[in-house]
Specification:
This protein has helices at 17-39, 43-56, 63-75, 81-96, 106-117, 130-138, 163-173, 187-195, and strands spanning 5-8, 121-125, 149-153, 180-184, 199-203, 216-217. With 225 residues, it is an alpha/beta fold. The protein has 2 domains: 5-16 and 103-222, 3-Layer(aba) Sandwich (Rossmann fold); 19-96, Transcription Termination Factor Rho, Rna-binding Domain, Chain A, Domain 1. The chain has a 6-stranded parallel beta sheet with strand order 3-2-1-4-5-6, sandwiched between helices. Helix 6 links the parallel strand 2 and strand 3. Keywords: Amino-acid biosynthesis, Hydrolase, Magnesium, Metal-binding, Methionine biosynthesis. InterPro entries: Enolase-ppase_E1 (IPR023943), HAD-like_sf (IPR036412), HAD-SF_hydro_IA (IPR006439), HAD_sf (IPR023214). Its EC number is 3.1.3.77. Pfam families: Hydrolase (PF00702).
């Protein structure tokens, strides 16, 4: 196969899932109420609040009701677009203040650098907002890695388990679907990408998968192009 572009997931693929669930999510959860009360008049936050009202189908929901909804979505680990946008704004402060840095597996860092050097275009598709993606790579353990990437996609493109989302990404990238390799630790996402014509690799870092439906690797070093 000839690969011209690599599309990668973040959580569990380039980045330890524990960093997201034990560092990022609690950080936003603890600060979201104060953040919303302090910034509710800002246009970016107002847009997020309107999106949240749309999700709730309650155009009259007040700020305190929305705070409760955001907390519920975090507790249930729901991939809700306005929540992801709000988390991204809160995480900006955390990264800029040095409260944490974006975790990246060493092999992921090394291979992303290598592929970029070989002229392969790199893209990200994550349930986290584009802002959150840029923060993880921009404030990573290895410094600012955003120059490696040609583009970012989040759930505004579509759900990660639907083939049409990957078809939309193919159109945006501008090369043939079979020239794109998608990396993820979630088989349903890989199924959708394959249905759109992409090549796939299941990144199974923790343990050997049982009867995987895709070619699998334990880390990025095992990926042959």
């Amino acid at each position: 196969m000839t690969i011209k572009a690599i599309l990668t997931d973040i959580e569990g693929t380039t980045t330890d899932i524990a960093f997201v669930h034990r560092v990022l999510f609690p950080y936003a959860y603890e600060r979201l109420a104060d953040y919303l009360r302090a910034h509710a008049d800002e246009s970016a936050v107002q847009a997020i609040l309107e999106q949240a009202r749309g999700e709730l189908k309650d155009p009259a929901a007040d700020l305190e009701s929305l705070i409760g909804a955001f907390r519920h979505w975090i507790e249930q680990d729901l991939k809700v677009t306005p929540l992801k946008a709000l988390q991204g704004l809160i995480w900006v402060q955390g990264y800029q203040q040095g409260d944490f840095r974006g975790h990246l597996y060493e092999d992921a860092h090394r291979l992303l650098q290598q592929w970029h050097g070989q002229g392969i275009e790199l893209y990200v598709f994550s349930s986290g907002s584009i802002k959150a993606q840029q923060l993880i790579f921009g404030y990573s353990d290895y410094g600012d890695l955003t120059p490696l990437f040609s583009g970012y996609f989040d759930t505004t493109t579509g759900p990660k388990r639907e083939a049409q989302s990957y078809s939309a990404i193919v159109s945006r990238i501008g090369c043939a679907a079979d020239e794109i390799l998608f990396l993820s630790d979630i088989e349903q996402e890989l199924d959708a990408a394959r249905a759109a014509g992409m090549h796939t690799r299941l990144v199974a870092r923790a343990e050997r998968p049982v009867a995987p439906g895709h070619e699998w690797v334990s880390n990025f070093d095992d990926i042959s192009l």
